[in-house]
Amino acid sequence: MAGRPADLRNADLYLAYRRHGQWQPAHRLPMPFSSSSIEFSPKITRDGKAFFFASARSLPFAPPAQPETAVQLHHRLTSPGNGLGDIYWVDVKALGLELAPAD
Prior knowledge:
- The chain is mostly beta strands.
- The chain has one domain.
- Helices cover 8% and strands 25% of the residues.
- The chain has one helix spanning 70-77, and strands at 14-15, 18-19, 22-23, 27-28, 39-44, 50-55, 86-91.
- The strands form 3 sheets. A 3-stranded antiparallel beta sheet has the order 5-6-7, with no helix packed on it.
- The longest helix has 8 residues, at 70-77.
- 8% of the residues are buried.
């Protein structure tokens, strides 16, 4: 993770390769990995097959059509997409990048 460039509001995900003992410049991962919300804790599994990250993105909110019960409110506030951070995972191939082994 790295600080945001001027065109984004929050932290994004970056990928850098280490080649011949030297770290190459980091490149920002595009949408949908980086977003206008905070992304953090990127990890690639040891076998190199899955990419995990966390994001504080939230689903679009529309006020309920009718009053909610306490149970309905609790469910909405504790469900994925509430803006408090969810864990996402994808096949590494979804990144559209060729991952180079570290040296």
